[in-house]
TrEMBL record:
Highest taxon of the lineage: Bacteria
Domain ExoI C-terminal: 216-345
Residue ranges constituting the ExoI SH3-like domain according to the UniProt record: 73-211
Protein name listed in UniProt: Exodeoxyribonuclease I
Gene3D superfamilies: Exonuclease ExoI, domain 3 (1.20.1280.70), Ribonuclease H-like superfamily/Ribonuclease H (3.30.420.10)
GO function term, MF aspect, one: metal ion binding
A biological-process GO annotation: DNA repair
The species this protein was found in: Hyphomonas polymorpha PS728
InterPro entries linked to this entry: EXOI_SH3 (IPR034747), Exonuc_1_C (IPR058561), RNaseH-like_sf (IPR012337), RNaseH_sf (IPR036397)
Pfam families on file: ExoI_C
Signal peptide as annotated in the record: none
Length: 345
């Protein structure tokens, strides 16, 4: 649904008549028009009484997406056709400027860019240079000077996810749908990148050096992409899904890879915990209790109970969120009763 949400933003910016009563949308802290769904949906005929409810938000997004598709069919068609990874790679690898539309800080960000890493379809992202930057002035710069230039905000180099359906327009499509063309400066920067592979390579190298080092994977969820399954474990996975729960419980310890062994055990624990040995049940219960009750600030990890309670308090402040907050309270109370704090002491 993120794809549709960003298309909403795009259509709102490009065709003000598509989204009704745009002037009534709230302003962001920066004084720009905000595009939050809880404000956008009611203004466009969707009774969004349960804002922040996952299913209701999906329904509201579909409603707005339909408006865009019906009122701007050509724009919608262009976005949908560019969504597959292969289409994204092809457009970014064309060595021509590409118009990029993003949703940043609750508002639209529209800019001309050009891919410089030359990695094609390899990897999950592309390094794209903002063509509004005067790159020609940076060609003679030292590595240290380039590093400083790449560290300003907004970042002159951006990583664009190849498999996240970014909203991209070729120069011809941008002119047709938006009436936008690259400036002389942007065309000049594009030509510079095409003619100077050495400069592109320097930028890519320095950009990668500036990237923060990834923390070592500690938790199972972080390690799941650390390698492929062996053929024997692939066979066990297929068997696991064919067996009943008793058979699955018996298969757990046969997995060679500890990651798959743990995943299989977690599935059995959630569905039929009585089929695990008492010590395994207790160990898993303690592990879950520690996760639930230990507060942390790492947004990449799971949501703790204290964090969930804080979020529910925010939902409760909204008049339309009282019912949802009550339902979430009841669900959390069930978790708290099942995984008590004394388990992890």
């Amino acid at each position: 649904m993120k794809r549709s949400s960003r298309a909403i933003c795009l259509a709102t910016v490009s065709r003000s008549e598509c989204i009704k009563r745009r002037s009534q949308l709230r302003l962001t802290e920066r004084g720009k028009t905000g595009f939050k769904l809880d404000a956008l949906a009611p203004l466009n005929g969707f009774a969004h009484a349960r804002a922040h409810d996952a299913l209701a938000d999906v329904e509201a997004t579909i409603h707005i997406a339909r408006l865009v598709a019906e009122r701007l069919p050509s724009l919608w068609k262009t976005c949908v056709e560019a969504a597959p990874k292969a289409a994204t790679v092809a457009m970014l690898s064309a060595a021509d400027p590409v118009l990029i539309v993003e949703h940043f800080a609750n508002g639209p960000s529209v800019w001309w860019g050009q891919r410089i890493d030359g990695e094609g379809a390899r990897g999950t992202s592309a390094i794209v240079a903002r063509l509004g930057t005067d790159w020609s002035a940076l060609v003679p710069a030292s590595d240290a000077q380039l590093g400083a230039a790449l560290s300003v905000s907004p970042k002159p180099l951006r990583k664009i996810g190849l498999n996240k359906a970014p909203i991209l327009f070729s120069t011809s499509a941008a002119k047709t749908e938006w009436g936008l063309v690259p400036t002389d400066l942007e065309i000049h920067q594009s030509q510079l990148f095409r003619s100077d592979p050495g400069f592109r390579e320097r930028l890519v190298r320095i950009h990668e050096e500036l990237e923060p080092a990834r923390a070592e994977a500690v938790h199972l969820e972080q390690m799941i992409h650390a390698g492929f399954a062996s053929r024997s474990d692939e066979t066990r996975m297929a068997r696991f899904h064919q067996l009943d729960w008793a058979g699955r419980a018996g298969l757990v310890r046969e997995f060679e890879d500890a990651r798959f062994r743990q995943l299989a055990q977690r599935l059995v624990f959630e569905a039929v915990p009585e089929m695990l040995a008492p010590e395994d049940r207790e160990r898993l219960s303690q592990a879950i209790a520690k996760r639930l009750w230990t507060d942390h600030e790492d947004k990449e990890l799971w949501r703790s109970l204290p964090a969930a309670r804080r979020e529910i308090d925010e939902v409760r402040k909204d008049d339309s969120g009282a019912v949802l907050a009550g339902e979430l309270d009841a669900w959390l109370e069930g978790l708290e009763a099942r995984f008590t704090l004394d388990r992890c002491e």
